[in-house]
Design brief:
This protein is of the alpha+beta class. About 45% of the residues lie in helices and about 10% in strands. It contains 13 helices and 7 strands. Strand 5 and strand 6 form a beta hairpin. Helix 2 crosses helix 11, helix 5 crosses helix 9 and helix 7 crosses helix 9. The longest helix has 14 residues. The model has no long low-confidence stretch (mean pLDDT about 95). The chain binds 6-diazenyl-5-OXO-L-norleucine.
Length: about 300
């Protein structure tokens, strides 16, 4: 059997027994996820796919959507404008932190945390545009789940307060509810582990014209320094590739020029990362020699 396939079979069998953590509860719809679901998929640049486990189970993208909306707006509005609104510095704080907004420039530190992603959402012209861009990345039509969207919208007091602050500081303009709706909708795109690994592979392959190659490096560098929030340093040390997590239990990673990797399992830790996902990525990095620092 192919080496990659046998490694992911082994990692799936090894980490299936891990019962740590629980699905996110702060968005009621996410709390209903089945903690036994566990999928691993690697999509190579040449299109070969290796998979193990529940790879066709749908879940909402949550924060794994942030790199794609960032890329979309960079491409549409250019670096100078985007940089004037959202920075590129890691924070060392949680994904939903509000404290940095009060400091210095009153500009979100980066587009991978909620404040930056909500600012980016305020520049998205329509739900249709966003749907088209995300679907092109996945190579299939993606749908927004109305129940997940409403579940988050009705409980998003913290994100609403971030949006008010962004409006106060002039980072976003106009009606904050429109920006928030687009943010909640991007979080509610439904994908499978296979879809997410294909989206990661599109980034690994220079954007395949969906995102111009000149912006792929921007997205990957932000994922690398900020994608795992206040554990990005530990991730760089132990895994060493650009990645992004979402509270639904998804993590995707990109090995530029080689492959896209996605792992889904809903039980998360206090930082909002899938616990099985972290274990799989650490082992995969070692077994396939993925870290860009350990060649
Ligand atoms: O803003 C939120 O609360 C969610 N919709 C997304 C957060 C998230 O996925 C954090 N990542 N691990």
């Amino acid at each position: 059997m192919n080496n990659i396939q046998s490694i992911i079979n082994k990692l799936h069998a090894t980490h299936k027994s891990c019962k740590e953590g629980h699905p996110a509860t702060y968005i009621p719809e996410l709390a209903k996820a089945n903690p036994d679901h566990f999928g691993i998929v690697i999509t190579m640049k040449n299109g070969d796919v290796y998979s193990a486990g529940d790879v066709d189970v749908e879940f909402s993208m949550q924060s794994t959507s942030k790199p794609f909306s960032y890329g979309m707006i960079l491409q549409e509005m250019g670096r100078v404008f985007v940089m004037s609104k959202v920075g590129v510095e890691p924070t060392g704080e949680a994904f939903n932190s509000i404290v940095e907004l009060e400091k210095n420039t009153h500009r979100p530190y980066n587009p991978m945390i909620n404040s930056g992603a909500i600012a980016i959402s305020s520049f998205i012209s329509s739900e249709e545009d966003m749907k088209k861009f995300f679907s092109q990345f996945a190579g299939k039509d993606l749908r927004i789940d109305q129940t997940v969207f409403e579940s988050e919208k009705n409980t998003a007091h913290r994100n609403r307060s971030i949006a008010h602050l962004l409006r106060h500081f002039g980072v976003i303009e106009g009606n904050i509810e429109n920006s928030l709706d687009l943010y909640f909708k991007q979080c509610s795109f439904m994908v499978t582990t296979k879809d997410l690994s294909r989206m990661a592979a599109t980034l690994a392959s220079g954007g395949r014209e969906v995102l111009k190659e000149e912006f792929v490096g921007d997205v990957l560098s932000l994922m690398f320094t900020c994608g795992m929030y206040d554990t990005s340093g530990k991730w760089a040390y132990s895994v060493g590739i650009p990645a992004k997590s979402g509270v639904s239990g998804a993590i995707f990673g990109v090995v530029p020029g080689e492959m896209g990797i996605a792992v889904y399992s809903p039980s998360i830790n206090d930082h909002g990362h899938s616990i099985r996902g972290l274990k799989v990525f650490q082992d995969l990095s070692r077994e396939l020699n993925l870290s860009i620092f350990r060649k």
